[in-house]
Amino acid sequence: MHxxxxxxxxxxxRHRPRRGTLALVSLPLTAALVLTGCSLLPGGDxGGDxGGDxGxxxxxxxxxxxxxxxxxxxxxxLKARVEIAEVARLGDRTRTTVEFTSxxxxxxxxxxxxxxxxxxxxxxxxxxQLIDTVRQHxxxxxxxxxxxxxxxxxxxxxxxxxxxxxxFSPPLEEGVDTVTVRAPGGIGEFAGVPVVDGEPKDYPTEPxxxxxxxxxxxxxxxxxxxxxxxxxxxxxLELTGSTVGVVQRREADTxxxxxxxxxxxxxxxxxxxxNDEAANVLKDVVEETRERADPEKPPITITGHTDxxxxxxxxxxxxxxxxxxxxxxxxxxxxSGYEYETVGKGSSDPVRSEGGxxxxxxxAANRRVEIxxxxxxxxxxxxxxxxxxxxxxxxxxPEEVAGPGTFHSHAGLEPVASEEGVAQPYVGAxxxxxxxxxxxxxxDGAFLVTRFAIAHDGERLARTDSPLxxxxxxxxxxxxxxxxxxxxxxxxxxxxxxxxxxxxxxPFPPTRQKDTLQYGxxxxxxxxxxxxxxxxxxxxxxxxxxxxxxx
Length: 551
Hints:
Strand 25 (432-444) and strand 26 (447-456) form a beta hairpin. Helix 3 packs across helix 4. This protein has helices at residues 263-266, 276-281, 283-292, 312-334, 359-366, and strands at 7-10, 66-73, 76-89, 94-102, 108-109, 129-132, 137-139, 146-147, 156-157, 162-169, 178-182, 189-194, 196-197, 217-219, 222-223, 236-244, 247-252, 256-262, 300-305, 340-344, 368-374, 384-386, 392-396, 417-423, 432-444, 447-456, 478-480, 487-493, 518-525, 533-537, 543-550. The protein starts with 6 loop residues before the first strand and ends with a strand. The protein has a 15-stranded mixed β-sheet that branches. Strands 2, 3, 4, 10, 13 and 14 form a six-stranded mixed β-sheet that branches. The protein is built from five helices and 31 strands. It is mostly beta strands.
């Protein structure tokens, strides 16, 4: 059973467990390459903090805002150096200038647009989006303006050439002087980019007659007219975060109460052992069971359930083992005054239908362990059903956000953990072994940025593969605060097309080649400020404890 989704603002910078529509904002990827050598440093002594008033202003890292990684999709990709040269206010719009340099050994056809999420031959750039991580807004991109890439030409991305790319987005709200630029593919995120006051520039309207050579700076035509209105109010989408607690749902009839627990909080992927942190989270469940369950009306029944992925016999065994694991914790906590029975139902009793657009959410809801008992006479006075453990969608009050994040390069990162797992991109696909490296996380405004790199063995992926359900920024990952059991699931923009809603690396993976480590990131709501490490739930790769949160 699945209750209606709701949404509330979360005070004090914290999110309460609940589920509702995810708000995803279309981010303008600030990819504009500056030929005039403009500086990212704001005039004077700096601006505010991107949220409320005050702050000492954003700082520019030594060496600039530079990331390297793979960008592209399907069979067209390249490794590149990307520098955010400028994010500038221009009155009725915001200009992002990006300097883009191919690091490949040879040329790559420009016709195959590596900056578009859609048609390969499109001239427009739909990525390089801007995020205000304090107000939790993602700005759209004027795809009818900015750099116009050639179609059906013989142009190529030449290694060693600096290409100036210009992206226009709606005007930023007043007071926003720091943004995060969301670059495509495995380039990564650019947090802490300052916003400067810009001036109009003259750009070419026709491509240069001669192809560039290594060491040149090259500018394709840039459209600068009046933009077509965006289909988003105020030019941005609101971003909301999803969190859940260990209790997924509770139901009661006239005699018995059933409490459903989320197995994703209690168990590692494909495992049946409850770790120490999850056992600690269950202490509240044990105490509640003591208060409400009537030992004179046995038994307490613990029933395990799985999702529909995998072999029926395997799922049956896993559900039985997980039921036994929860029973052991209840028995240890409640003592010998209760009788228990365990049942495993595998995937035979789902609460939601799998295989739809929300397949990931449906499968997560079906993975559960239910505790059912006859309640004491004074525990429940009427029939009740509550979905208190449903995902909660919320936004943090910007006044409670400490400020935007600072730039974190992913060059030379040392992993804090690594593992191999098996992912099945879609039903019927060949399974491949995937490896992951996990890097320290960091806070960016109201959000936490999870960072990792993924590679796979075997043959090259097919064009239709979307491994880990991560084609456009969505990953089957989450973060848990081990002290409270609260799980932080995702950050999404408020848009009808939820396929493109999550804030993460996308398209992903940008290259389908095997044995190629590719950087990725995924935004989740930030846990309370005092939390300095979390558990990373990495889907098929398992669970990684004590992942540090950097400043």
